[in-house]
Amino acid sequence: MKVILIDDEKAMHLIMKRMLAKMTDIEVVGCFLDAKEAYAYLTTHEVDMVFVDISMPRENGLEFSERVRASRRATKIVFITSHKEYALSAFDVYAFDYIVKPVVQERLVKTVERARAEIVPDIDRMVTPSESLIDPLTNRELDIALAIVDGLSNMEIAERFGLTEGTVKGHINRLYGKLGIKRRVQTVARMKELRMLP
């Protein structure tokens, strides 16, 4: 998995590189102090995941993420920040994850493993509609989408799959981002457009 780091503090580059080096098959292909330079790199290189700070000069992490999404790249974006208050804004720009500093190794491993599982999709659960998704739904996201279609609430979905409501909300945020919708009621219509429902 190819990743880049964006943080205006060089110390964070060193910390993250040291932590990621403990995991297999992770290649840090770039470290940037500036989000605009990082975006320029993305336009000419394949990158699976970006770890980006939010509070930075010139262009902050949220603005960077908006540009990445507008370009329709499927790169996964993980915010690593000292600010808890930007979490909702982060998921509005379809963040894959949101980690509050100081970064803990175990927490980082969980994020990377989840991303790794999604990069190798389950072919049996994927669809090939005339209008395809840039970032295919994971098995769990598809299960939750179908549960939404069945009319289940977040609490009922959590009970069905043995998850917390917070986890369900996180899955739904990512699901909305992948489907390009903003409201629950749009789920059925969008899935029919993509031929994910009869």
Automatic annotation (TrEMBL):
It comes from Paenibacillus allorhizoplanae. Residues 130-195 form the HTH luxR-type domain. It comes from the Bacteria. The modification 4-aspartylphosphate is found at D53. This is Transcriptional regulatory protein LnrK. Residues 2-116 form the Response regulatory domain. InterPro entries: CheY-like_superfamily (IPR011006), Sig_transdc_resp-reg_C-effctor (IPR016032), Sig_transdc_resp-reg_receiver (IPR001789), Tscrpt_reg_LuxR_C (IPR000792), WalR-like (IPR039420), WH-like_DNA-bd_sf (IPR036388). Keywords: DNA-binding, Phosphoprotein, Transcription, Transcription regulation, Two-component regulatory system. SMART domains: HTH_LUXR, REC. Gene3D superfamilies: 3.40.50.2300, Winged helix-like DNA-binding domain superfamily/Winged helix DNA-binding domain (1.10.10.10).
